[in-house]
C-alpha cells in the first residue's frame, strides 16, 4: 500500500489516504486508473453530505399562507389596500443585485508512484493532468535517459536536475505505464495481453517520449493481431502520425494500402501464371490450375462485357505465356527427334535424355492446353487459333516422331480450339479455319484412339 496526501483549502491538516499499488517482478508499481483517481477526488465531498435520516419538516412561506385564506377575506383586504385614483404612486425600492459567488478552485490531488529500487532513485517527474490530478513518479535518471530521448534531453539541459515537470498531460495513466515499461526487460511480453486501443495510446506516448524500443514493440503487436471494426482506421491514423521513418510502419500500411505503383496487377498475374507453369509436382499443378481457371471463369463474365484495359493486359500476358510454352515445346520436340536419330550410336546416354525430354514435352503440352482453355473461356482465342494453325513443322515433322502417350496432349490443344470455334468462343477467319484443319486434322486422327481413353 502507498500513501498520498490531499491538501485542504481551509488550513486544516491534510488527510492521508491509501491507494492500492501492485508490485511486479521488475519493481513496477502500477498507478491507479483515471476512474479511480476521479473516484478518490469525489469521496471527500460525498462524506460531507448527510447519509440519511428524517428530513427536516418543510416550512410554509408567507405567500402560501396568504393563498390559503378564503376568497372573501382576500377580496375585502384588496379593497382596503387599494389607493385612491388621484394618489401619486411611490417609487419602487432599488433592487439589490447579489454579488457573484467566488469560483471554487478545483482541489489538486497528488499521487506518488515509485519504480525500481526506491532507495537509489535520484529523479522526480511530476505529471499535471486534467481535473487537478498530479502524479509524482520517483524514477532513476540513468534508465530514463537510456530509453527516452525526451528525458535524455531534459536531463542534459538542466543538469544537475532533481525534478522534471510535465504540464498539461493528456493521458496520465498511460504516461505512467509507459515510463514503467522502461524498467521492463521484455516490452513485447507486457503488450501481449493488451487490446488494440490501449496499445495505440501507449504508442502515442512512447512516440512523444522517443521510446524507440516501445514503439517497435507496439508496431510488432499491431502487425500480429487482427483489427476489428473501426480499429483499422485508428491504427492507420496513428501510424501515419509517426514522425520517424524507421519505425517499421510500412508492413502495417501494406495491409490497407494498395501496392499498385510498386507491383502492378499485370506483374502479379504473370508471376502467378509463371509459378503454375513451372511447377513439376503433378498434384500441385492440378490443384493450382483448377483454382486459377475457376478464378478466370468467374472474372470473365464482368470483364468481357466492360472491355477494360486490365482485361486486355491480362490477355496480353496469357498470349505471352502461350508463346513461351510453344517455343519450349518446339525445342523439346526437336531435341527428342534428334535423340531418336542418334539412338543407335549412344543408346545408354540417349535413353535417359529422351525420357526426360518426353516428360517435359508432356508438361509443356499440358500448359498449352490450360492456357487455351483460359483464352477460350474469355472469348479471346481468335489469334491463338491462327498461331496454332501456323505450326506446320510441329504437326507434320516433329509430332509423328514422339510416342503417342507423350504427344496426345498436343492433339488435345487442337481439339479444344476446334470446340472453341464450334461454340463461337473463337471467331477466326475462313482461311484460318481451313489451315487449322489442313495442318492438325491428320495428327488428331492418328491420336484419336488414345484420346478416347
UniProtKB/TrEMBL annotation:
Name the residue ranges with Pro residues bias. Answer: 91-101
- In this chain, composition skew of type Polar residues spans 39-48
**Alphabetical UniProt keywords:** Ubl conjugation pathway
GO BP annotation list = protein ubiquitination
Q: Name one Pfam family in it.
A: BTB-POZ_ANK-like
Keyword Repeat attached? no
Would you say which domain of life the source belongs to? Eukaryota
Location of region: Disordered: 39-109
Where do the At3g05675-like ankyrin-like domain residues begin and end? 270-452
Pathway per the UniProt entry: Protein modification; protein ubiquitination
What the entry lists under InterPro entries is as follows: At3g05675-like, At3g05675-like_ankyrin, SKP1/BTB/POZ_sf
Membrane-spanning residues: none
Concerning PANTHER family, the annotation shows: OS07G0123500 PROTEIN, OSJNBA0011J08.25 PROTEIN-RELATED
Q: What is this protein called?
A: At3g05675-like ankyrin-like domain-containing protein
This protein's species is: Zea mays
Tell me what gene encodes this.
LOC100381793
Amino acid at each position: 500500500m502507498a500513501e498520498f496526501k490531499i491538501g485542504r483549502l481551509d488550513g486544516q491538516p491534510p488527510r492521508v489516504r491509501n491507494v492500492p499499488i501492485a508490485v511486479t517482478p521488475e519493481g513496477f508499481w502500477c498507478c491507479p486508473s483515471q476512474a479511480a483517481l476521479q473516484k478518490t477526488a469525489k469521496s471527500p465531498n460525498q462524506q460531507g453530505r448527510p447519509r440519511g435520516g428524517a428530513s427536516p419538516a418543510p416550512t410554509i412561506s408567507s405567500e402560501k399562507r396568504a393563498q390559503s385564506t378564503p376568497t372573501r377575506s382576500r377580496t375585502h383586504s384588496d379593497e382596503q389596500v387599494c389607493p385612491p385614483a388621484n394618489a401619486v404612486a411611490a417609487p419602487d425600492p432599488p433592487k439589490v443585485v447579489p454579488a457573484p459567488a467566488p469560483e471554487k478552485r478545483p482541489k489538486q490531488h497528488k499521487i506518488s508512484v515509485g519504480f525500481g529500487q526506491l532507495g537509489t532513485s535520484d529523479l522526480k517527474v511530476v505529471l499535471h493532468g486534467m481535473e487537478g490530478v498530479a502524479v509524482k513518479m520517483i524514477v532513476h535518471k540513468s534508465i530514463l535517459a537510456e530509453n527516452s530521448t525526451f528525458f535524455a534531453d531534459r536531463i542534459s539541459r538542466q543538469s544537475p536536475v532533481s525534478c522534471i515537470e510535465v504540464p498539461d498531460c493528456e493521458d496520465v495513466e498511460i504516461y505512467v505505464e509507459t515510463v514503467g515499461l522502461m524498467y521492463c526487460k521484455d516490452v513485447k511480453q507486457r503488450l501481449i495481453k493488451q487490446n488494440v486501443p490501449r496499445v495505440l495510446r501507449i504508442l502515442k506516448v512512447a512516440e512523444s517520449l522517443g521510446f524507440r524500443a516501445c514503439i517497435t514493440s507496439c508496431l510488432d503487436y499491431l502487425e500480429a493481431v487482427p483489427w476489428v471494426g473501426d480499429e483499422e482506421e485508428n491504427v492507420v491514423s496513428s501510424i501515419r502520425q509517426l514522425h520517424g521513418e524507421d519505425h517499421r510502419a510500412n508492413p502495417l500500411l501494406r495491409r490497407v494500402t494498395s501496392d499498385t505503383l510498386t507491383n502492378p496487377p499485370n506483374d502479379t498475374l504473370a508471376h502467378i501464371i509463371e509459378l503454375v507453369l513451372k511447377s513439376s509436382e503433378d498434384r500441385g499443378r492440378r490443384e493450382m490450375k483448377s483454382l486459377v481457371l475457376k478464378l478466370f471463369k468467374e472474372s470473365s463474365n464482368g470483364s468481357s462485357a466492360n472491355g477494360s484495359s486490365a482485361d486486355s493486359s491480362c490477355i496480353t500476358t496469357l498470349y505471352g505465356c502461350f508463346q513461351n510454352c510453344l517455343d519450349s515445346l518446339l525445342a523439346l520436340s526437336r531435341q527428342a527427334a534428334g535423340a531418336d536419330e542418334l539412338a543407335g550410336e549412344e543408346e545408354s546416354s540417349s535413353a535417359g535424355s529422351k525420357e526426360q525430354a518426353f516428360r517435359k514435352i508432356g508438361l509443356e503440352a499440358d500448359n498449352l492446353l490450360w492456357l487455351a482453355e483460359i483464352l477460350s473461356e474469355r472469348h479471346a482465342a481468335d489469334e491463338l487459333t491462327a498461331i496454332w494453325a501456323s505450326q506446320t513443322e510441329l504437326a507434320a515433322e516433329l509430332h509423328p516422331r514422339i510416342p503417342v502417350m507423350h504427344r496426345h496432349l498436343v492433339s488435345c490443344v487442337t481439339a479444344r480450339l476446334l470446340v472453341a470455334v464450334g461454340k463461337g468462343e473463337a471467331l477466326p477467319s475462313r482461311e484460318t479455319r481451313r489451315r487449322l484443319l489442313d495442318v492438325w486434322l491428320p495428327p488428331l486422327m492418328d491420336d484419336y484412339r488414345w484420346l478416347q481413353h
